[in-house]
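Data deposition worksheet. Section B asks for the primary sequence of the deposited chain exactly as it was used as input, without tags or linkers unless they were present during the calculation. Section C holds the resulting structure in C-alpha cell form. Section D is free text for depositor observations; keep each observation to a single sentence. Incomplete worksheets are returned to the depositor.
Section A, Depositor: J.P.
Section B:
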Amino acid sequence: MKLLNTSKSFAFHFLFTALAVFSLPALAENTDSTGRLSFVFENDFFAGNDRNYTNGIKFIWIPDDATETPDWATKAASFIPWFPEDGKLRHGYAFGQSMFTPDDIKLKNPPEDDHPYAGWLYATLGIASEKNNQLDIMTFSLGVVGPAAMAEDTQKLIHELINSDDPKGWDTQLHNELGFILTHKHIWRGVQSFNLNQYELDISPYTAASIGNIHTNASLGATLRFGKNLPNDFGPPRVQPSMPNGTDFNPSSKQTNWYAFLGFEGQAVARNIFLDGNTFRDSRSVDKKPFVADIQLGVVFDWQDFRLGYTHVFRTKQFTTQKSTDGFGSITLNFAF
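Section C:
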C-alpha cells in the first residue's frame, strides 16, 4: 500500500507539473490567445495489446505568431545551413513520458528474449522554419531512462485505476541513464493535390533523421489527406521525437472541418536504447531489426480554436524474437490558450 501511495504521488506530480509548466505562457496574457497547447496520449489499449511500446504522453506548447522569437531560437536557426534565411521561424517546447514492457507483465522475471521494461522522461526544445509549403524542424530532447523516468509508478497507477493486471517485472527495467535525441525533419506539404467534387486530396512526403544515445535512425514517409477545406498544416502530432506538426493550424472557417489521412513510413534503425539496452552498463536487451515500417491512419476534426485527432498505427516487428506485429492508438487534443 505504501508503494501504491508513492506511485500515485509521483504520477500526479508528473501530470500536474506538466500542466502548470505549459499553462504559464498563457497566464501571462488572458485577453487573447498566446499560443497553442496540445496534449497527446498514445496507448496500445486501442489495439487490444499490452506490450512493447505500451504508453506515451506528451504536452506541447507552441507560442503564437505574434510572440517574439527568443534569442536562443534565432541563433540556433542561424547555425542550421538548410534553414531558409527568410523562412517563417517558430519555436516550441514539449514534456513527455514513454514506457515499454514485455508481452506478459504478470511475470516478475520475464523472458530475456522479450522487450525489456523501460521508461523515458524528457523535455524538448524545437525550432521550425517554413517557406513555400516546406517545413524544416529541428528538436533537441534531453531526459532520463530507467527508474528515474517514473514509468513504473505511472503504469501501476493507471492499471489500478482501470482495474488491470499489476505489472510485476519492473525490477528488470533498464538502468538510469541520461539521454538525448537530436532530430531533423523536412516536410513537403501538398506536392500533389487534387479536387474531387467538393473534396480535396493532397500528398505530403517527408524525410527525418535522429542521432543520440536514445535513438539513431533515418526515416522516409508520406501522408495522404482527404477532406473538405484542408487546413494549412502538416498533419497531426505524435509522441515520437519531433515538433508537433499539427499544433500550429489555421481552420479556414468557423464551421466544423475535418479530414482523414493515411500515412506510410519506413525507418532504418542504428540505435534504439529500449531494445539495445543501456549504453555503458549491462542490461536486458534484444536483437533489433534494422528496418521497421509503420502504417498510420486516422481522422482530424477542427472547430474554431479546437482540434481533436485520432491516429491508429500498425508497426512491423522491431526485434527478432518478437512474436507479432504491434499496434497502438494516438489521441490529440489541441486548443488556443
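Section D:
The first strand starts at residue 35 and ends at 43.
The two ends are 39 Å apart (CA to CA).
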